[in-house]
């Protein structure tokens, strides 16, 4: 090692000699060197002493001075140090999409007096925004959104007299909106050249200052959504005639819109939903540019719909959901451009004319008109479906079957795309099934990249999704490289910069937008740099020698380390023999499931952030994740107290890899390292059946939908029992293990307790009792003999839960016993009025309910031999749906406790009468029939 140290020292001395020939200013080199001392993952070609002369990635120079530092999307980690002030000629600084950059912004950033563009989008910065940024008077672009900044909006930003784009959204900023005052202190009202105020998703409070707006402003996009603003919208807003998008939704505003609001003739999108506004619906007559209006979840009142809905020529969307609109809805006249009118949860009593439905989508669920007999079958009374799926189709070619993490591009080439989320903050269309919008986005993106000479082969959009929290519309964007299967660093930097700095101009229907880039881990060969001078050749040669020596040494050490790690992994990993034993019959060949590292899943879930949490329970938490491909997944992370043994965890993976059915949740992969057990599933967007029945998810389940959910779950179970080889007993069927997809189709989930029924088991498995109390088969509980009929019993309880919306054990009452007590087959609806869910009793009598309950009671028979098979259950539910006149193939915190018996046979019935006689503790909730 001593000899190696001597060689390195000699090379460093040689660099010092050559430094005098560098093309980079010494101050700038020292500044960059100091800046990156705390960084990891900096570009690979950042070697030597001449950033300008050697063409370091992300650095641009002029006359030996560094003028641009563009390092977006490089997965940099560390902090931004005060050394940044050394780069005094810097006019562009972009560190966006580096979530590993944390800490505070140094006040010394205010010394960069030449800075025109500062973009720190989607990093991990925190603390207050430094006042010193207000001294950067040449700034035209400031994007600090999607970080963790706290404190108030600095008044000093009012000094940025040249600012065009000001984006502070998606932080933790609080306090009031600063405006200039009599003491000479600046405020946002002085930013007369600004086109964009983007302040949404913070904690900004107080009233909206009247002084904020003036006729001298040129604002186009005013976004203060999802804050804590109160009071009314000031009339002064109407003086800003240039406004195109206004968002004040998700606040606590009161009153109505200003009476002169219709002076904003250039306004295209208006969002004031989810406030406390009231009074008559405003008069928007004359606002001929208006395309999208959302006033939902307020207390606006109106008899019928105002005339401007019919007269505005560009109007596509009117959302007045959850207000006080009443009376008759006149459909004889409306704007020809209209795509959606949402009047759910109002007081509409009739349509005029009744049988002349409009060409646009009309939503009237939960209005009096939809409570009339037979109204639930009307299209406008149905619960709105989610956004249709979309993925860019191939360009007249056949998609390739790609290896590893590669994806087939629209031009059918396997590659590693650069991926992220393209998010519209004010989408102005509602017809998401019209793919022309997506095609236009794709074409404009591709045109921008090609005009900038970026090596892009094609772009792909997928996974359209509307965020119910922010009301933003997002798409996954994949950008594919040309001529090779992966981007080099320069390619990623260029693509990321064009999107982070808004150089890509989105179509009006998608503007304003933001982009959130993912880390790129597949860099290819970097372009070779050439120099005309002899000095450059010498420096390059010395650098090459040094790099070769260091890389060779590190590669050797890395290889040794990886070999040792692989050996340890093979000894400790219970999955290590899967590949070797694939023909032995002891483990299945995995189909589509892949091994994810812990670091991968931590990255895909933004370090398992609370914002990504979509579910939790005794087992741990479920997180939404976005793979490097842009695909949404659900990642189930076991809690420390609910870890399975390695064998049991492996069993669940094996089971899921065997089964493939549209009513079963698909497994995509798993993680078993660093003391973690995680399963990666396909993302099911509408949560659990339990959440829907309880009202937690906000999804209204009518009787028809419940029948179809029951049918989907039954088909999934029938597949496990009769078509899987060998058959599989789920052993934990319950409403929290039934998930609902985009079309509210049921998918059976969670196979952690499942058992294989092999030939040697002769129809049953003798095993310790596991399951969930309330759903648990009593015969299995008492005999430890597990059969497919145990799943049938649990499914029968689930059917009763669908009919009653009650938990299996609720306030000391067992649902099966309660139904038995009330049920009388000689009476209408079997005398179940007092126990049925009132939601399904609205309007007409739920057809087929008696047969449905009778089937459920057969499923929960005391003895397994008396219960039907799941195949018989499927046929019966199909018959009920057909009886109603529908096609069964068309799409469309519990008090139960998890039970695990340590051993021994139970001689007592699990649901004895005396076990649930809690009347002294819980009051009775039973209501006698009227």
From TrEMBL:
It is an enzyme of class 2 (transferase). InterPro entries: Kinase-like_dom_sf (IPR011009), Leu-rich_rpt (IPR001611), LRR_dom_sf (IPR032675), Prot_kinase_dom (IPR000719), Protein_kinase_ATP_BS (IPR017441), Ser/Thr_kinase_AS (IPR008271). Residues 1-22 form the signal peptide. PANTHER family: LEUCINE-RICH REPEAT RECEPTOR PROTEIN KINASE HPCA1, RECEPTOR-LIKE PROTEIN 55. It holds the Pfam family LRR_1. GO terms for cellular component: membrane. It comes from the Eukaryota. The chain crosses the membrane at residues 537-560. Its EC number is 2.7.11.1. It is found in: Membrane. Keywords: ATP-binding, Glycoprotein, Kinase, Leucine-rich repeat, Membrane, Nucleotide-binding, Receptor, Repeat, Serine/threonine-protein kinase, Signal, Transferase, Transmembrane, Transmembrane helix. It is a single-pass type I membrane protein. The lineage of its organism: Eukaryota, Viridiplantae, Streptophyta, Embryophyta, Tracheophyta. This is non-specific serine/threonine protein kinase. ATP binds at residue 640. Residues 608-881 form the Protein kinase domain. One of its GO terms (molecular function) is protein serine/threonine kinase activity.
């Amino acid at each position: 090692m001593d000899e190696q140290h001597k060689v390195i020292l000699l090379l460093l001395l040689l660099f010092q000699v050559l430094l005098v020939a560098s093309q980079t200013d010494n101050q700038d080199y020292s500044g960059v060197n100091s800046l990156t001392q705390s960084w990891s993952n900096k570009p690979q070609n950042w070697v030597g002493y001449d950033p300008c002369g050697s063409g370091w990635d992300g650095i641009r120079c002029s006359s030996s001075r560094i003028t641009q530092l563009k390092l977006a999307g490089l997965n940099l980690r560390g902090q931004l140090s005060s050394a940044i002030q050394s780069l005094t000629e810097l006019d562009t600084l972009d560190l966006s999409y580096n979530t590993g950059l944390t800490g505070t912004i140094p006040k010394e950033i205010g010394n960069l007096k030449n800075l025109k563009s500062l973009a720190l989008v989607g990093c991990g910065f925190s603390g207050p925004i430094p006042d010193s940024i207000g001294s950067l008077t040449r700034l035209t672009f400031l994007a600090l959104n999607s970080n963790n900044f706290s404190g108030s909006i600095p008044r000093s930003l009012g000094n940025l007299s040249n600012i065009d784009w000001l984006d502070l959204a998606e932080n933790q900023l609080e306090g009031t909106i600063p405006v200039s005052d009599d003491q000479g202190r600046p405020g946002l009202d002085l930013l007369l050249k600004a086109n964009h105020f983007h302040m949404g998703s913070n904690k900004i409070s107080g009233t909206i200052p009247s002084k904020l707006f003036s006729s001298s402003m040129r604002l186009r996009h005013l976004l203060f959504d999802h804050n804590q603003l109160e009071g009314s919208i000031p009339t002064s807003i109407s003086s800003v005639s240039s406004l195109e998008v206004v968002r004040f939704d998700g606040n606590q505003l009161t009153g109505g819109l200003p009476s002169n609001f219709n002076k904003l003739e250039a306004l295209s999108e208006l969002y004031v939903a989810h406030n406390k506004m009231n009074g008559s619906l405003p008069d928007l007559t004359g606002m001929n540019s208006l395309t999208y209006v959302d006033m939902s979840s307020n207390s606006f009142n109106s008899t019928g719909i105002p005339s401007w809905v019919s007269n505005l020529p560009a109007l596509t969307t009117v959302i007045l959901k959850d207000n006080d609109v009443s009376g008759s809805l006149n459909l004889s006249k409306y704007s020809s451009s209209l795509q959606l009118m949402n009047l759910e949860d109002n007081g509409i009593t009739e349509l005029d004319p009744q049988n002349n439905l409009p060409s646009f989508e009309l939503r009237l669920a939960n209005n009096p008109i939809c409570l009339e007999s037979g109204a639930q079958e009307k299209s406008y009374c149905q619960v709105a479906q989610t956004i249709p799926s979309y993925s860019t189709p191939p360009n007249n070619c056949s998609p390739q079957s790609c290896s590893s993490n590669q994806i087939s591009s629209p031009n059918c080439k396997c590659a590693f795309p650069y991926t992220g989320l393209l998010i519209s903050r004010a989408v102005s269309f509602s017809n998401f099934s019209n793919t022309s919008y997506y095609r236009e986005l794709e074409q404009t993106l591709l045109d921008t990249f090609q005009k900038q000479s970026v090596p892009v082969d094609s772009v792909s959009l997928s996974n359209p999704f509307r965020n119910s929290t922010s009301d933003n519309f997002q798409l996954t964007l994949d950008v594919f490289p040309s001529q090779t299967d992966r981007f080099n660093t320069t390619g990623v930097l260029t693509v990321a910069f064009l999107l982070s700095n808004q150089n890509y101009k989105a179509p009006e229907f998608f503007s304003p937008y933001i982009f959130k880039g993912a880390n790129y881990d597949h860099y290819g060969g970097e372009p070779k740099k050439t120099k005309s001078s002899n000095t450059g050749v010498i420096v390059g040669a010395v650098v090459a020698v040094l790099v070769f020596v260091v890389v060779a040494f590190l590669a050797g050490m890395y290889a040794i380390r990886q070999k040792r790690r692989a050996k340890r992994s093979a000894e400790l990993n219970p999955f290590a023999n899967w590949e070797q034993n694939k023909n032995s019959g002891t483990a299945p060949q995995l189909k589509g499931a892949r091994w994810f590292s812990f670091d991968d899943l931590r990255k895909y879930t933004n370090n398992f952030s609370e914002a990504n949490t979509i579910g939790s329970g005794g087992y741990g938490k479920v997180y939404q994740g976005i793979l490097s491909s842009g695909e949404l997944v659900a990642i189930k992370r076991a809690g420390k107290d609910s870890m399975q043994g390695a064998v049991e965890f492996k069993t669940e993976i094996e089971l899921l890899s065997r089964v493939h059915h549209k009513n079963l949740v698909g497994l995509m992969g798993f993680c078993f390292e660093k003391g973690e057990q995680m399963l990666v599933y396909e993302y099911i967007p509408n949560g659990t059946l339990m959440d829907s029945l309880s009202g937690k998810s906000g999804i209204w389940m009518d009787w028809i939908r419940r029948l179809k959910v029951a049918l989907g779950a039954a088909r999934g179970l029938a597949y496990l029992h009769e078509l899987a080889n060998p058959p599989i007993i789920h052993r934990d069927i319950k409403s929290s293990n039934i998930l609902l997809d985009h079309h509210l189709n049921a998918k059976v989930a969670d196979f952690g307790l499942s058992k294989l029924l092999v030939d040697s088991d002769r129809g049953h498995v003798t095993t310790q009792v596991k399951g969930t109390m309330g759903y648990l088969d009593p015969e299995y509980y008492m005999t430890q003999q597990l059969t497919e009929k145990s799943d049938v019993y649990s499914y029968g309880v689930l059917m009763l839960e669908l009919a009653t919306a009650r938990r299996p054990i609720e306030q000391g009452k067992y649902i099966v016993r309660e139904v038995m007590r009330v049920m009388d087959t000689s009476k209408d609806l079997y005398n179940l009025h007092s126990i049925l869910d009132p939601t399904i009793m609205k309007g007409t009598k739920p057809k087929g309910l008696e047969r449905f309950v009778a089937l459920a009671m057969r499923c929960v028979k005391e003895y397994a031999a008396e219960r039907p098979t799941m195949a018989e259950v499927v046929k019966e539910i199909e018959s009920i749906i057909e009886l109603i006149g529908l096609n069964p193939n068309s799409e469309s915190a519990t008090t139960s406790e998890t039970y695990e018996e340590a051993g021994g046979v139970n001689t007592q019935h699990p649901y004895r009468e005396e076990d649930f006689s809690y009347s002294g503790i819980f009051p009775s909730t039973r209501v006698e029939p009227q």
